[in-house]
Design brief:
Number of domains: 1
Organism: Bradyrhizobium denitrificans
Helix content: over 70%
Keywords: Membrane, Transmembrane, Transmembrane helix
Protein name: Membrane-anchored protein
Radius of gyration: 18 Å
Shape: globular
InterPro entries: DUF347
Strand content: under 5%
Order of helices and strands: HHHHHHHHH
Largest sheet: none
Structural class: mainly alpha
Number of strands: 0
Pfam families: DUF347
């Protein structure tokens, strides 16, 4: 960010990180952890969907309260909240599909409608969907509500592509990765709207991460690599911790001031 841009800012503190390559790497890995950790807690540890959902929702709500009460962006707090909301979003989808027998097509459509409604209400009230102006509690609540449904939608859409349409987890990950590549091309080459590009890419990273997590963790007989949920979750958590530690020290993703208005 240029010095000129800083001089034009009001000094209000933004609550989310600048969008850098680190942002996207951690985001995809957080979605992968959300997928594998939910399976680990519910299945491997035998807690079941219901108990896992209650526990992780409570932990997420606690983290969200600390996040909202923070005066500015704090890398560890923000990314812990993202990982937790990823797990909760996965559990919402799993409860509806596995627990209540609702089809993946239905959950994908319903989550998509809810997400569109949140964006519409957010834009109508605030006049922008930019993540560079998350400096009020109301805007931050819209932000986290949107993220919750991107995770829930991404879980259902990823499972729909991999399982219902029988593409397999590896191919599904390639498809979603290619879609993100197209969005990047449209943004960098054809200069399509930055906010639109960001949210489409953000939505697509969820099924990309979910499909990647399933591909790595699922047994070979189920179309995966057989890493297991423990190894997969720990592998990505270690990388996330290293990157968040780097960002905490360097503060290279901080956008402390936001434009007035």
């Amino acid at each position: 960010m240029t010095q000129t841009a800083h001089r034009n800012f009001s000094g209000l503190l933004n609550k989310v990180p600048e969008v850098t390559i680190y942002f996207w790497i951690i985001k995809v890995m957080a979605t992968t952890v959300g997928e594998t950790a939910a399976d680990l807690l519910a299945t491997r540890l035998g807690l079941g969907l219901t108990i896992t959902s209650y526990v992780m929702t409570a932990v997420f709500v606690a983290a969200l309260i600390f996040q909202i009460r923070a005066r500015s962006y704090v890398a560890p707090l923000y990314w812990v909240t993202v990982v937790l909301i990823s797990i909760v979003g996965t559990l919402i989808s799993d409860n509806l599909v596995d627990g209540m027998g609702i089809s993946l097509v239905t959950t994908s459509v319903v989550f998509g409608v809810f997400l569109a409604a949140i964006f519409a209400l957010w834009y109508r009230i605030e006049g922008t969907l930019s993540i560079h102006t998350i400096f009020t509690t109301r805007r931050e609540m819209f932000y986290w509500a949107a993220i919750l449904f991107t995770f829930a939608l991404g879980t259902s859409a990823g499972d729909l592509m991999a399982e219902k349409l029988e593409l397999g987890y590896g191919l599904a990950a390639i498809v979603f990765g290619s879609m993100i590549g197209v969005i990047a091309l449209l943004y960098y080459v054809f200069k399509i709207d930055a906010i639109f590009s960001f949210w489409i890419a953000y939505i697509l990273t969820r099924p990309l991460g979910a499909s990647t997590g399933d591909y790595l963790a699922k047994p070979v007989i189920a179309g995966g690599l057989g890493w297991g949920t423990v190894t997969t979750s720990l592998f990505f958590l270690v990388i996330i911790l290293a990157l968040v530690a780097y960002l905490t020290i360097t503060k290279s993703d901080r956008l402390e001031a936001v434009p007035e208005g």
